[in-house]
Design brief:
By secondary structure, the protein is mainly α. It has a domain of about 100 residues. It is built from three helices and no strands. Helix 2 packs antiparallel against helix 3. About 10% of the residues are buried.
Length: about 170
Amino acid sequence: MFGNPLTFDVKEATLLLNTFTYWYFRKEVVVMDLRLIEYLIYLSASVLLTVWVGRTLHRNGRRFLVDVMEDEPLADSVNRLLLVGFYLVNFGVAALLVNPSGGVGSPADMVQTLATQLGVVLLILGTLHLGNVFVLNRLRRNQQARAYARWYHEQVDAKSIPTTETSGG
């Protein structure tokens, strides 16, 4: 294309430069599109999973909390606080995992990265759920032990109090 380095055609140099820029720009656009698609899919799936699991736990955990706390307004407040904490932790983790591996080379890499990221989010959701169930189960056991102790002391106190019977005569 360029025979003599001292003399060259400006049109040919412009064409070469534009071809290189066009090729480079097109390659970057494809990679950026894959990365953007990955981010959108990952964030959408993370938000949907977190909200679905959070609402399910909130709805079905209320009965358990009312049983443990024996105070319905308090149980509802704790349930809402647990939901907010659940959302904050999971959305924070999802945001931190947006780009742990860098660039995406191909659609297969994108699917692999998405599967790994969503797997981590699901493991964290499950771990938090099991942690909540463990803590609430401990609270429930303590509550049941206190209720049994109250009942037992009432039974012992009732037997130890002598009854006075008056005889007619």
